Amino acid sequence: MNTFTEHTGAASEIYSLIKVSRGFGKGKDELQVLSDVDLTLREGEIVGLLGRSGSGKSTLLRIIAGLIQPSSGEVRYNGSLLTGPAEGVAMVFQTFALFPWLTVLENVEAGLQALQVPAKESRKRALAAIDLIGLDGFENAYPRELSGGMRQRVGFARGLVVNPTLLLMDEPFSALDVLTAETLRTDLLDLWSDGQLPIKSILIVTHNIEEAVLMCDRILVLSSNPGRVVAEIKVPFTHPRNRLDPVFRLMVDDIYALMTNRRRADASTGRAELQLGSPLPQVSTNLIAGLIEALAAEPYHGHAGLANVSERLLLEVDDLFPVAEILEHLGFAELKGADITLTEYGKLFADYGTQERKAVFAERLVRHVPLAARIRQVLQERNGHWAPRVRFEQELEDSLSEAAVEKTLESVISWGRYAEIFSYNDHTETFSLEDVEGSL
Q: pLDDT tens, 319-349?
């Protein structure tokens, strides 16, 4: 028997965020991470924050914990304005964050010691937490002796032992292998459903759509750059949930469609076209070619649901969406709802050999990525057919942050080298047409 109290499932409000915004930096270099976020957390529910990189999920989690303050807006905890670290809130991290010099028991007790809980009570609660999360017998083991899944269980125990009102989870399963992550999700949900967890609510940050539908009672979908709540989805299924249930699969597909359609909603008409100052994702040509090949082969034969591709190829949202979107931008594929379909160019690419692939990729790159076309044009027009990297950095600075400029140039350099439309010298940081004349 453990010492934890049962959650009641009541709907009383624990947290509310009202028009919360957060930026980093100053002046023209300020990066707006969150904008006008409204959010409510209630007792007895698991809420998911679902979004891609750049949507501000982790920043929002830290605002809720009181670790950072919003630039504007209000955070209310149990009805009172939150102005500092929130009492009764615990966090579980993606990277375990254990003290390697402490045993399992000592790691779990660390939070209680910070709260100045008496030693006898601290030991009793720590042992109960370790037993609850399935690590009984490993109290004296050190983190180096544990598997990744066992270390994450220690992280859960350390969060639960302080009897928090709210448990914040920042992608807690993403660093684990598929089978271990599935076991931990199931165990956590079983404990929650049985009322054995000493918490009133859970907020989990994830970019795994299926995980969100599997675990959560409500899902908040965040847009990116800056992060805004663009949808709130109620999940009506009881636990345990069946991933193979057609209704479950339909909800997963609907969320994939929602997240791809949000990208289109930012464009004036139709498919969003890249501009000269558009940020480019860091997607390798190997991933681009790999996804085209996978879509062209069995069982897809050129057409697939994004959810099925994600599950089959073990790709999460942050891995799959950027590649799929670049395929669409380059005209190799079309995204419609939750589906992706190869175009004739995509099918040709899949059938071609190495040099033919380079040629068609070069044509698509110059036609559909304005930055690649601009670099190529400048090199052709300049005496000596070379240009310094800084020349293009300055051109991008009006529309992109310094970090985005760096990532965007690294992407176009990688793609341009593969397509052989220009060369780039890392040492001198210069572009040139050396050895690439006639590639287009």
A: 899 999 999 999 999 999 889 999 999 999 9
Distance between first and last Cα of the chain? 73
Indicate whether 8 pLDDT > 80.
no
Show the 3-state SS of 352-372. Answer: CCHHHHHHHHHHHHHHHCHHH
C-alpha–C-alpha distance, residues 110 and 386, integer Å = 59
The pTM for the full model equals 0.80
C-alpha 438: how far from its chain's center?
41
Q: Which H or E run includes 208? A: none
CA–CA distance, 407 with 307 (Å, rounded to integer): 27
Supply the pLDDT for residue 11.
64
Is beta strand 339-342 parallel, antiparallel or unpaired with respect to 333-336? antiparallel
Closest CA to 43 of 16, 76, 10: 10
Distance between CA atoms of residues 63 and 258, nearest Å:
26
CA atoms within 13 A on the CB side of 242: 4
d(CA 320, CA 423): 28
281-308 burial, b if ≥16 CB within 10 A, otherwise e?
Answer: bebebebbbebbebbbeeebebebbbbb
- Please check whether residue 255 is in contact with residue 206, taking contact to mean a CB–CB distance below 8 angstroms: no
Contact status, residue 379 vs residue 433, Cβ threshold 8 Å: yes
Residue 258 has a CB neighbour count (10 Å cut-off) of 17
Contact 44, 200 (CB under 8 A): yes
| Greatest pairwise CA separation for the chain in angstroms | 81
Q: Where are the beta strands (DSSP E) in 238-309?
A: 303-305
Prior bond of 370 cis (ω within 30°): no
Q: Which CATH superfamily is domain 13-258 in?
A: P-loop containing nucleotide triphosphate hydrolases (3.40.50.300)
